[in-house]
Amino acid sequence: MSDALVWRVCDGHRAYAVRRWPAEMAEARLGWITQTLAELFHRGCDFVAVPLPGQGAERWPLRDPDGASWEASPWLEGAPLGAKPSQQELKAAIGGLAALHRAARGLQAPRGAPVWSVAQRIDRLREIAAGEDPSEAADLSNAPPGLAGVVATARRAAAATAQRLLRYREQESPTVIVHGDARPDHFLLRDGRLSGVVDFGAMRVDLAEADVARLAGELAAGDRRLRDLVVDLYAAAAGPIDRQLVAALDQANAVIAADNWRKWLAGRDRGGWDQAAVTERLRSIAMRLPAE
Predict the structure, then answer these.
(1) Phi and psi at residue 149, in whole multiples of 5°?
(2) What one-character-per-residue DSSP string does 253-264 give?
(3) How confident is the model over 124-143, as a mean pLDDT?
(4) Which of 81, 126, 135, 213 would bridge with 249, disulfide CB 3.0–4.6 Å?
(5) 3 state SS of 76
(6) Rounded to an integer, what distance in angstroms lies between the CA atom of residue 72 and that of residue 245?
(7) CB 100 within 8 A of CB 45
(8) CA-CA distance, 284 to 276, in Å (whole number)?
(9) How much is the average pLDDT of 150-155?
(10) Phi/psi of residue 17, each to 5°?
(11) φ and ψ at 43, to 5 degrees?
(12) Residue 234 neighbours by CB under 8 Å, 6+ apart
């Protein structure tokens, strides 16, 4: 549902994922992502696909006349982690996330690399609570059913969610390079084993708990026991993790996601998005918002 597009292309011997990044993806950022993926691969994360470098004037990524970037990487076979994974699949996906975080320790992000902190989340939540947004009056007449209710619930929860995160503002855990969008769909499995982790376009410097919160939150969809199970499995693979921080970040993610969808869908024609997919995403957000 983003502006990035991916094609499966075969040359007769191997399959490749050819991806078009929108013009907003800066060349320097794309280069950093590629270099980081290569380093993670060399550190044992063989489930990530490293973009091909190409040769000479055709060196990837290529820029087209519209400013978009094109890259190619080996195609990773496998099916996305489902909404009701088996215990084996769940352990495989979470083990892969833990392995990514372990491999990323010690990697230095270049100056200007995106950073997302607890303080930034608190500021964003307060803006949502106050309704301080120039797009506030945007047209939502074509928005999917349920969006207005999810947005309203998120706004009412924003201030309390910001307050919940305050205790972590001054005592943040160590940061690391994270996936940034560790949704279940981005973990591929084959025969119960992790075969790939994909879509690193949101890679940034953040808390490891942020990736765990994203994966646990979307898998659990409000089921606290399942969320705790995900945290337990991650802790078994990677070491201690702050369970309360994961819960607070999950709630913050849901509030911020609701506001993001308001912005993305404002004024859009209904033919411009997958209605079933958007409806399902909004349902997941609603399940993770606090009960009123």
Answers:
(1) -65, -40
(2) HHHHHHHHHHHH
(3) 72
(4) 213
(5) coil
(6) 37
(7) yes
(8) 13
(9) 93
(10) -95, 115
(11) -90, 15
(12) 94, 97, 98, 212, 216, 241
* 200 close to 210: Cβ distance less than 8 angstroms: no
* Nearest in space to 44 (alpha carbons), one of 3, 102, 92, 1: 102
Tokens matching residue 274: 């997958």
pLDDT tier at 1, thresholds 50, 70, 90: very low
Bridge partner list, 207: 175
Counting residues of the chain whose pLDDT is more than 70, the rounded percentage is 88
Residue 289 has pLDDT above 70, yes or no: yes
From the list 133, 183, 182, the residue with the least C-alpha distance to 154 is 133
> C-alpha angle with apex 280: 8 to 139, nearest 5 degrees?
100
Strand 5-10's sheet: what is its strand order?
5-10, 15-21, 69-74, 62-63
- Give residue 36's Cα distance to chain centre: 17
Under 8 Å between Cβ of 104 and 203? no
Q: Please give the C-alpha separations between residue 209 and each of 7, 21, 121, 241, 243, in angstroms, as whole numbers.
A: 32, 27, 14, 7, 8
pLDDT, tens only, 246-286: 999 999 999 999 999 888 877 666 556 677 888 888 888 99
For residue 8, which amino acid is it?
R
What Cα–Cα distance (Å) separates residue 280 from each residue in 105, 146, 147, 289? 35, 11, 11, 15
Within 10 Å of residue 32's Cβ, how many Cβ atoms? Answer: 18
Contacts of 12 (CB under 8 A, 6+ apart): none
Give the single-character DSSP code of 187: E
Closest to 81 (Cα-Cα) out of 239, 260, 216, 176: 216
Overall pTM surpassing 0.85 (yes/no): yes
What is the per-residue pLDDT for 139?
56
pLDDT, tens digit, 9 for 90 and up, residues 134-147: 555 555 666 677 78
Instruction: Report pLDDT digits (tens) over 60-75.
Output: 788 889 989 999 999 9
Q: Identify the burial level of 13 via C-beta atoms within 10 angstroms of its C-beta, where 0-12 means exposed, 13-18 middle and 19 or more buried.
A: exposed
Output the pLDDT for position 55.
55
